[in-house]
């Protein structure tokens, strides 16, 4: 079992770090009193959880002082315990609170933001050296996400789903499409009476399209383009990348391409396939591929 503890000053990026781990499949708990850590781990291990991330900070009150001892207890219970402490300069923290207009957890009447930050820094000083310390000053959220992924050696594509979506141009381009490819220039199976009622998932249509050299060349060109630029979208910390392939009615050519591309990428990244025109064709009983 692996436990990742996240602590640090308010405004230093703890929520960003937790979101990265949650996207990577960790069971995430935010704002847990330190004294409840052993009980939490026992319960989750009994339920079969293998990767857990927990945020422990000054929001849990005086129990934060018990964290060093609880970490030692965890190391006796769990084979892999990691601790990340996020820090930042005071001027950076003040700017972030000013931008979000959030109240500091230690903010009270007649206490300035700078004074609240100083109190928090003093309270957390005994635990700041328990693990790996990250200074997030002047750091954008995307950069911090990349740092967390590198530190945890998370699979690069763990948080991204590649969605291939077929559609018909006659019904409009999907509003959620990130990349759009037009395959209407290719021969249309619709004009073969035997193929007209079928879709791009049927073997007869697949055979028809794969006999055409241009189909193979376009499929490979699209595959190469997506493969070349996928790392850039992953670095941008996307959760989804929607690749839309359109023909006239969304029945034959676009369906074939969406299925072909999903198979091509299926072994390297999480893949989903959607055929947008299917429900519409069921309603009107026709379509041009």
User: Poorly predicted ranges (pLDDT <50, ≥5 residues)?
Assistant: none
What form results from the Cα inertia axes?
elongated
In whole angstroms, the N-to-C terminal distance is 51 Å
Beta content:
15-25%
- Please identify the structural class as seen in this structure: alpha/beta
Which radius of gyration do the C-alpha atoms yield?
26 Å
Give me the number of helical elements: 10
Average pLDDT number: 89
Domain RapZ-like N-terminal: 1-152
GO molecular function: ATP binding; GTP binding
Pfam family, one: RapZ-like_N
Protein name: RNase adapter RapZ
Describe the structure.
It holds the Pfam family RapZ-like_N. Helix content is 40%, strand content 18%. The chain has helices spanning 14-23, 37-46, 67-77, 90-100, 113-124, 141-152, 203-210, 213-235, 253-265, 278-284; strands spanning 2-8, 27-29, 51-55, 80-87, 132-135, 161-168, 179-182, 240-247, 270-275. The strands form two sheets. A five-stranded parallel sheet has the order 2-3-1-4-5, with helices on both faces. Strands 7-8-6-9 form a four-stranded parallel sheet, with helices on one face. Helix 4 packs across helix 5 (113-124). The two termini are 51 Å apart.
Jot down its keywords.
289 residues, four-stranded parallel β-sheet, single chain, alpha/beta, five-stranded parallel β-sheet, elongated
């Amino acid at each position: 079992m692996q436990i990742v503890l996240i602590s640090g000053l308010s405004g230093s990026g703890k929520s960003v770090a937790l979101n990265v781990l949650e996207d990577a499949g960790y069971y995430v708990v935010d704002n847990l009193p330190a004294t409840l850590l052993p009980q939490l781990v026992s319960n989750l291990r009994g339920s079969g959880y293998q990767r857990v991330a927990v945020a422990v900070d000054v929001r849990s009150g005086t129990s934060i002082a018990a964290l060093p001892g609880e970490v030692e207890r965890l190391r006796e219970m769990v084979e892999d315990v990691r601790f990340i402490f996020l820090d930042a300069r005071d001027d950076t923290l003040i700017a972030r609170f000013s931008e979000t207009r959030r109240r500091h957890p230690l903010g009270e009447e007649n206490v300035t933001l700078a004074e609240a930050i100083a109190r928090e820094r003093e309270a957390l000083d005994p635990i700041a050296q328990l693990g790996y310390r990250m200074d997030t000053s002047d750091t954008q959220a995307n950069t911090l996400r990349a740092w967390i992924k590198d530190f945890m050696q998370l699979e690069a594509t763990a948080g991204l789903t590649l969605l291939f979506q077929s559609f018909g141009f006659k019904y409009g381009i999907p509003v959620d499409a990130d990349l759009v490819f037009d395959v209407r220039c290719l021969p249309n199976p619709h004009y073969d009476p035997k193929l007209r009622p079928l879709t791009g998932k049927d073997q007869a249509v697949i055979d028809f399209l794969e006999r055409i050299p241009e189909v193979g060349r376009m499929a490979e060109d699209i595959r190469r383009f997506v493969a070349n630029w996928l790392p850039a979208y992953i670095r941008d910390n996307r959760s989804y990348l929607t690749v839309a392939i359109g023909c006239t009615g969304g029945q034959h050519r676009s369906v074939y391409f969406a299925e072909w591309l999903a198979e091509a990428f299926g072994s390297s990244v999480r893949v989903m396939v959607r055929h947008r025109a299917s429900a519409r064709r069921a309603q009107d009983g026709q379509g041009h591929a």
